[in-house]
Design goal:
- The protein is mainly alpha-helical and 362 residues long.
- The chain has twelve helices and no strands.
- Helix 8 runs parallel beside helix 12.
C-alpha cells in the first residue's frame, strides 16, 4: 500500500473510532459496571453518573488513538514500512490499547481536560494551516488556467473563480448577520462578532493591496469563512447563552475536522509523487535523493503528530470540552477565540513573509 492509500486508511480508522466513541458515550458506557468506570463518577456528590461514564469512554478511546498515532510516528522514523504496512499488527495494537484503558481507572481527569483543551487549540490552528494550503493551491489552479496561453486571460476561469469568491463572501456576510442576531445575550458575544468582521475585512484588504499575491482573493475568502466559523464556535459556547447546548456545534466540528484531516492525508499521500518526479529529474544526484527522503520522513512524522492531537480534539468535541452533562463552556469559547487570532496572524504572515524575507523561497 502506498502512502496515499495508507493515509486514507488512517483517516478511515480515525472516523470509525470516533463514531464508536460517540455511540458508547450515549448508549453503552452509562451502563458499564466496571470498577474503572466507578472511579470519579460515583464518588463525587451531585454528578451525573451516566454522563460521566459516557465521557470516560470517550476519553479512553481518544487517548488510546493518540498514543497509537504517536507510537507509529516514532516508529516510522526508524522504518517507513511501519507507516504503509503491517496493518494487522497495528490494528491489533490499537484495540489492545483502547481495551486496556477501559479497565484502567482514570486518575487526574480534570488535569487531562485542561491539557486537552490546550492541545485542541493547537489543532484548531493546524486546521487553518491546512485550509490556507488548500486555498492557495485552489487559487493557483484557477490562475494557472486563466493565464496559460502566453499571459492571455481566459475569462472563463477568472469568472469561475470570482463566482466561488462571491458565494463564499455572501456566506460570510450572512454568517456575520446571523451571529449578531442569534448571539447577543451578552456584550462579549457582540464584541467577538465585531472583531471577527473586522479581521475578515482587514485581511481581505491587506491581500488586495499586497502586490504579487497571484490575485489570491479566493484564499482570503476561505480564511474569512474559517474566521467566522471559529467565532460561531466561541459565541455558541458562551456560558451566557440560555437553555442547554445543542449538537449542531459537535456535528459541524466533526465535519470540519474530517475535511482538514482529509487534506492532511492527501498532502502526505501526494508528497511522494513530488519526490518521485524530483528523483527522475535528478537520478544522479545523491544529495537531492537524501534530501527528498528526509522530507518524506518528516511529512510522515508530522502527519501522525496531527492525527494524535486530532484524537485529543475529538475527545473535547464529543464531551463539549470536558463539561459533564454538556454544559456551556467558557474554556471552549476562549480557546476558539485565541485560535482565531493565531490563525489570522498565520495568514497575514503568509502574505507578508515573501516581502520581508527576500532571501528565502516561499
Amino acid at each position: 500500500m502506498g502512502k496515499k492509500g495508507a493515509a486514507a486508511m488512517y483517516l478511515t480508522i480515525f472516523i470509525i473510532m470516533s463514531f464508536v466513541a460517540f455511540v458508547l458515550q450515549h448508549w453503552g458506557a452509562p451502563q458499564f459496571d466496571f470498577y474503572s468506570f466507578h472511579v470519579g463518577c460515583e464518588d463525587i456528590p451531585n454528578i451525573d453518573t451516566a454522563a460521566c461514564k459516557g465521557e470516560n469512554a470517550v476519553y479512553r478511546i481518544c487517548i488510546g488513538m493518540s498514543i497509537w498515532f504517536l507510537m507509529l510516528g516514532l516508529m516510522s522514523m526508524c522504518n517507513q514500512r511501519i507507516h504503509s504496512g503491517l496493518w494487522g499488527i497495528k490494528i491489533l495494537l490499537l484495540l489492545m490499547l483502547t481495551t486496556g484503558l477501559f479497565f484502567t481507572p482514570i486518575v487526574g481527569q480534570p488535569i487531562y481536560v485542561q491539557v486537552a483543551r490546550g492541545i485542541s487549540g493547537i489543532f484548531l490552528v493546524s486546521q487553518i494551516v491546512a485550509f490556507i494550503d488548500v486555498a492557495y493551491r485552489w487559487n493557483s489552479f484557477f490562475v494557472a488556467r486563466a493565464y496559460n496561453d502566453y499571459d492571455s486571460e481566459n475569462k472563463t476561469w477568472l469568472t469561475l473563480a470570482l463566482i466561488f469568491c462571491s458565494f463564499i463572501m455572501i456566506g460570510i456576510i450572512i454568517g456575520i448577520i446571523l451571529l449578531y442576531v442569534e448571539y447577543n445575550n451578552c456584550t462579549r458575544q457582540t464584541v467577538f462578532t465585531t472583531i471577527s468582521a473586522v479581521l475578515v475585512i482587514g485581511t481581505t484588504l491587506l491581500q488586495l493591496h499586497t502586490p504579487d499575491t497571484d490575485s489570491s482573493l479566493l484564499t482570503s475568502c476561505i480564511v474569512g469563512l474559517y474566521v467566522i466559523y471559529l467565532c460561531w464556535v466561541a459565541v455558541s459556547s458562551d456560558e451566557c447563552n440560555p437553555g442547554t447546548p445543542t449538537n449542531q456545534q459537535m456535528i459541524l466540528g466533526c465535519l470540519v475536522t474530517t475535511c482538514s484531516l482529509a487534506w492532511t492525508c492527501y498532502s502526505v499521500g501526494t508528497q511522494n509523487i513530488y519526490s518521485e518526479l524530483s528523483d527522475k529529474e535528478d537520478e544522479e544526484d545523491p544529495d537531492i535523493e537524501d534530501s527528498d527522503t528526509g522530507n518524506d520522513q518528516q511529512s510522515v512524522v508530522l502527519f501522525h503528530g496531527i492525527m494524535a492531537i486530532g484524537s485529543i480534539y475529538i475527545s473535547m468535541l464529543l464531551t463539549k470540552w470536558g463539561t459533564t452533562s454538556g454544559n456551556y463552556s467558557n474554556a471552549q469559547m476562549w480557546v476558539s477565540v485565541v485560535s482565531q487570532w493565531i490563525s489570522v496572524a498565520i495568514y497575514i504572515w503568509t502574505l507578508l513573509a515573501p516581502k520581508m524575507c527576500l532571501s528565502r523561497d516561499f
